[in-house]
Amino acid sequence: MTDSPLLIVGLGNPGAQYAPTRHNVGVMLIDELTSRTSPMPATLAVHKRTNTEIAETRLGGRRVILARMRSFMNVSGGPVKALANFFKVEPENLVVVHDELEMDFGQVRLKLGGGDHGHNGLKSVSKSLGTKEYQRLAIGIGRPPGRMDPASFVLKPFTSKEAAELPFVLGDAADELERSL
């Protein structure tokens, strides 16, 4: 067991209009994780130095910092780097939670490093950190139907069927993360 904190960052876009969209599944997972912390539930508060919302807590016995971005997805690298620097978190103790078009809806994958698959949030984080060697928790959102532009697809809300399954998907993703602690 390490004393080094684990920084878990949920990528997404700020604002009520983006809250229910596929691109915000990372932020949704942070909300799920706050309900599992000790003491329960964790409360997110604005961290002014990094323009994020954070909760310092414990999850599965490990010290964690849960963070939601207050900046847009495409420029999330700066705040992620600022958080990592502030809390002295090395890249291997960083988990970036993001939506993934290349995985079917509901699939979950935790891995260290890798490519960004065209994901602008991951591109921004990798560029700001100067490395791709951080953990990524990908939550599958599936491919856009027909010829829909992927950029439009990720900014749309989940279908009613997907929305009904989403709490279970987020539960599975949180379970996967807790197993890795």
The top-level CATH class is Alpha Beta
Total number of β-strand segments?
A: 7
- CATH topology group: Rossmann fold
Low-pLDDT parts are none
Q: What would you say this structure looks like, in words?
A:
This protein is of the alpha/beta class and 181 residues long. It has one domain (6-180): Rossmann fold, CATH 3.40.50. Helix content is 31%, strand content 23%. The protein has 5 helices and 7 strands. It has helices at residues 25-34, 77-86, 120-129, 150-154, 160-180; strands at 6-10, 45-47, 52-59, 62-69, 94-100, 108-112, 135-140. A hairpin with a 2-residue loop joins β3 (52-59) and β4 (62-69). α1 crosses α5. TRNA binds at residues 18, 72, 74, 120. It comes from Corynebacterium testudinoris. This is Peptidyl-tRNA hydrolase. Its main location: cytoplasm.
Describe the structure using short key phrases.
single chain; 181 residues; alpha/beta; Rossmann fold; 7-stranded mixed sheet; 31% helix; globular
Provide the fold topology.
Elements: E1 6-10, H1 25-34, E2 45-47, E3 52-59, E4 62-69, H2 77-86, E5 94-100, E6 108-112, H3 120-129, E7 135-140, H4 150-154, H5 160-180
Parallel strand pairs: 1-4, 1-5, 5-7
Antiparallel strand pairs: 2-3, 3-4, 6-7
Helix pairs in contact: 1-5, 2-3
